[in-house]
Amino acid sequence: MPPMNDDLDLSRPLRALKRFTWLVLLLSLAAGAVTYLLSSRQTPVYQAKTLILSAGSQTSNPSVGNTVVSPPPLPAGAIEGALQSENVLGVVRRRLAEVPELTRAQRIVLADRLAQDIASGRGRVFDVSGQQDIYGNGTYTLSATHRDPVVAARLANLAADALVDWDTERGLVKVNAAINGLRTRLADVERRLAAAGPVVGTPTSLQQTLLAQRANRLDALNNLTALRETVVGSLSVVAPAAVPLKPVAPKPLRNAVLVGGFVLLLLSALLVLWSSVNRMVASDADLKFLNLRLLGEVPRVRLLRRGQSLLVALRQGRWSDSVAFLAAGVKSVLPKGERRPPVLLVTSLFSGDGKSNISAAIADARVASGDRVLLIDADLRRPSQASIWQAGAQTAEWVDLPGAVPFPGEESRDLLGALDRPVTAQARRLRDNLHLLAPAPGMHAQTQAHLPAERFREAMTQWGAGYDLIVVDGPPALAVADPLVLAPHAAGVLLVLEAGRASVASVQRVLDALLLVNANVLGVALNKVNPRGQVARYGYGYARRSTPAAAPKPESRVL
Fold first, then answer.
1. Rounded distance, CA 191 to CA 494, Å?
2. pLDDT per residue over 83-142, tens digit each?
3. What sections of the sequence does the record tag as coiled-coil (predicted)?
4. Which residues contact 4 (CB under 8 A, 6 or more apart)?
5. Model confidence band, residue 510 (pLDDT cutoffs 50, 70, 90)
6. 198 and 319 together in one domain
7. Domain annotation covers residue 1
8. What one-character DSSP code corresponds to residue 4?
């Protein structure tokens, strides 16, 4: 058999998305609905905005005594940094008493938040945005958020006033420095005049010079003092904050859409990742990836009443064609005319995949088509054929197997005894042309029992002459080594997989082991397939249009 195909397979994630679309959408809608409910119950938050103008040439660059006294243009980021500083937020904290809508407890909480904003440099109450050119000209929007719209407007105006006052103080720095400098020089002139003596009559040349300097500096000092009262900064409030009418948060619909979309994308990504990592065999496309042929699919079977046989449900029910299709597929690929006897070994990966029911169904279908079939229950640890065939496996008459001539009292009526003494082997006659050879009762307790490979080969050669097909119900291949021991002596191996249960890696591991022992793997029978998801399959989808209305929900049991 060719090795596993390593090409990129996108069909698996697409099938996984298609299969779980309803679940992903349901979870996304649920997440969006929960988000909407939680958001709608949150306290609304209002945001008030004020517009501030920055004019870099507002003071016209005046100079007094050869000293430029206008403030420099605000550099980029200066307003944002000043808004989160003690110079602005500290003033707002001290002026919170001017907001009558705040209670004392609310003022304390808000003051603490402003203190945290100052310490961290990150604003939660105030924010400013805008831009300016290289000359410091531009506009800024200062916003304040609060649960009370009136408080939000008052806070925005307080912060704007504090920011303008800070800028004004920045503009007075040079003016105050110039005034202090002139006062120092004026005091020096007064000291020198005092040292020159009192002015009597005509002043001396030195006194005239000092008097002229004093007059000039007094004039400059008066001009700067007058300028200090008129100097403003680069910032001015253009539009004070108005009371907002609509809250900015929460937005239940927007939050619900965002959360729902995020959950949808997250679940879809996780589903694609899961389908890529956990590569499960669920359809014929997965088998093509393993270069395996699909011989048939058997759906889940619901029994109409308690105690009903699965074989009866398959034989007479609406799914009978699926078993017939599988049996015909096995017959078509089983080698003919070779030295090996017509032995079909049926195995699975795990217990519970339904390989025993598939074995019984294939044997029953082949007998119905006119073949002579021997059914061997070779699962020593968990024999199941006796319970599948119910009373027929306990009360049916005994028949001699081909080549056996037992004396009375020396019959070998269990599997190990028949393999040990083929000439005395007998089997139960379940129906015309169908015989069953099973382990002795209580054999499942002997967990260390194994089938002898050489005796099995000899017995199959002897018994194969009297049957058209020998169906061997073997144990799971991943549980014990018996299937690997028996596979070389069978004409073909049928692998039964429960749809969506076995991973690609585990199937590949079993295939590699079967290839090592030179087994002829015929293909795969997918069991417990969901018929609703496979309505196009021949056998159990073909007759669905003529199926009458569904009966009341019966007890569920799967093949």
1. 120
2. 888 989 999 999 999 999 999 999 999 999 999 988 888 888 999 998 877 777 889 999
3. none
4. 289, 290, 291, 504, 508
5. very high
6. no
7. no
8. P
Q: Is the dihedral of CA 424, 429, 434, 439 positive or negative?
A: negative
Query: Do 208 and 222 belong together in one domain?
Result: yes
CA–CA distance, 157 with 95 (Å, rounded to integer): 11
The strand pairing partners of 540, in sequence order, are: none
Residue 555 lies in a domain: no
Instruction: Name the pTM for this structure.
Output: 0.58
Same domain, 88 and 230: yes
| Cβ atoms of residues 418 and 425 within 8 Å | yes
Q: Do both 65 and 161 map to the same domain?
A: yes
pLDDT at 376 over 80: yes
Cα distance between residue 270 and residue 264, in whole Å: 10
Instruction: Please check whether residue 558 lies inside any domain of the structure.
Output: no
Same domain, 25 and 91: no
CA torsion, points 476, 481, 487, 488, in degrees to nearest 10? Answer: 170
Report how far residue 258's alpha carbon sits from residue 388's, in angstroms, rounded to the nearest whole number. 55
Domain of 31, in residue numbers:
11-42+250-276
Tokens, residue 468 = 């058209």
Place of tokens 């032995």: 343
Among residues 284, 406, 280, the alpha carbon closest in space to that of 350 is found at 280
Residue 186 CB burial class (10 angstroms; 0-12, 13-18, ≥19): middle
**Domain co-membership, 267 together with 307:** no
Average pLDDT over residues 409-427: 90
What residues contact residue 438 under an 8 Å CB cut-off, 6+ apart?
Answer: 376, 377, 383, 385, 386, 393, 414, 415, 428
Sign of CA dihedral 77, 90, 126, 73: negative
Tell me the CA distances in angstroms from 283 to 8, 81, 109, 433, 531, one per residue in order: 17, 63, 63, 34, 12
Report the domain count for the chain: 3
